[in-house]
Amino acid sequence: MDIEALRAFKYAVESGSISQAAERLNYSQSNVTTKIHKLEQQLKTTLLYRHNRGCSATPKGEELFQYAVQIFKTIDLAEYAMQDEDHPKGTLKIGSMETTAAVRLPEILADYHRQFPLVELSLQTCPTKQLVESILQFDIDAAFVTGPIVHTSLLAETVFREKMLLIYPQDKPDFNLESATILVFKTGCSYRFQLEKYLRCEGITSYRLMELGSLEAIVGCVAAGLGITLLPEAVYETYAKYYELSYKELPQEFAVIDTQLISHKENPSVPLQRFLQLLRKQCVM
Hints:
Blueprint: H1 3-15, H2 18-25, H3 29-43, E1 48-51, E2 54-57, H4 59-82, E3 90-96, H5 98-103, H6 106-115, E4 119-125, H7 128-136, E5 142-146, E6 154-169, E7 181-184, H8 190-201, E8 208-211, H9 215-223, E9 229-232, H10 233-239, E10 245-249, H11 252-255, E11 256-264, H12 270-282
Parallel strand pairs: 3-4, 3-5, 7-8
Antiparallel strand pairs: 1-2, 5-11, 6-9, 6-10, 6-11
Helix pairs in contact: 1-2, 1-3, 1-4, 2-3
């Protein structure tokens, strides 16, 4: 079996697109199509459904995809085992909540890149729930999530302790919590869960939620008077320099959230181990 054809097939399934798989591999789209077609001929089965939206795996294709994930995981393990631990190379895929990525990670990632320039770094942001799923599927190497995370397949280490603040427009110090619009990230965000828990504790069970897609959008909309939100103090201090914001402190049981770095127990990546060592030196709870 052509390992590059299998890789092209795996990328096509992951992205749902032949063209995106080609871009990821730096191949032409026709080259990827030919490789997958030859793989289908060799295995005497159809692996992909082609449709207007891209492509998706057939039942046999899904079965092969699961094998492909394990095959490339084994290849990665072999490469890690052969690496020079003082000069790691390869990829390091980091996931993070958007708030952590915005205010906690830039200096850490820049320092890591200076020390280990041969490692190809990537960062994706999404809520805690999706990040945990990505770690379990080996889609990313490590993720900054809201703790505590307890799972038999995961390692979790608390790296930041965030003081949470209720953020509101500077010109509305007397806002009414019961009538205010609550600005949040999409479902799966731990800060959203904490804010809703606080509202219920205050006896507020009916409220208006508005989901926004980015931290910048949430902060900007709060400053414009659209609503209120819950964010770490470190985020408030960063954005209060540019936006007219005020805050309210929360009762102790809602005021602190730990950020943990999680990784899979079966991921022996040398780039990941070097990242963990750097993080332990730099992070202060």
